[in-house]
Amino acid sequence: MRPAKALALSALLSTSLWATAALADPADDAFDEGMANLAKADYPAACASFAKSESLRPEETVAGQYQLGRCNEEQGNHVQAQRHFLHCAQLAEAQGNAQRATVARQRVTELQEKVPLLVLLVPAEIAAIEGFEVRRDGEEVPEWQWGNPIAV
User: Collapsing DSSP states into helix, strand and coil, what is residue 134?
Assistant: First the structure.
């Protein structure tokens, strides 16, 4: 090969490689890795990849939240899955994407039967005792949650 052609080819290749590297997005790479892990049924790795993808973005995404819901559901983490699907629906609605919001809300509804609920009933005379508080897993449960179903 002639030196001029070799130099031109070398410049073209280095420019192409630089452009490819400049276009790489770590958040997209992590998301793609999550999709590959989902396809292999490696749900813990998928969840970790989707969480990483979301953490690398300036805002959470509809797709990221939906996929976090999927991999959590597959692991039996129904409360977490439901939270991600609900957040996905809220994000989709805010973006005017009614179809995605509907699908995400369907997933929330489907999980409802699998999510155990806790209802804390506190008699008024007990709630009136000064300093009385209810704790769950070491954290105080606010009064507004008393008497309402709490996903556990």
Answer: strand
- Separation between Cα atoms, residue 106 and residue 100, nearest integer Å: 10
8 A C-beta contact, residue 50 and residue 30: yes
For the chain, the maximum distance between any two Cα atoms, rounded to a whole number of angstroms, is 95
Which residues touch 80 (CB under 8 Å, ≥6 apart)? 68, 72
> Along the chain (152 residues), what's the average pLDDT of each consecutive run of 10 residues?
50 47 84 98 98 96 98 95 94 97 96 89 95 92 86 78
Taking a C-beta distance cutoff of 8 angstroms, is the pair 39, 50 a contact?
no
Q: With residue 75 as reference, give the H or E element that holds it.
A: none
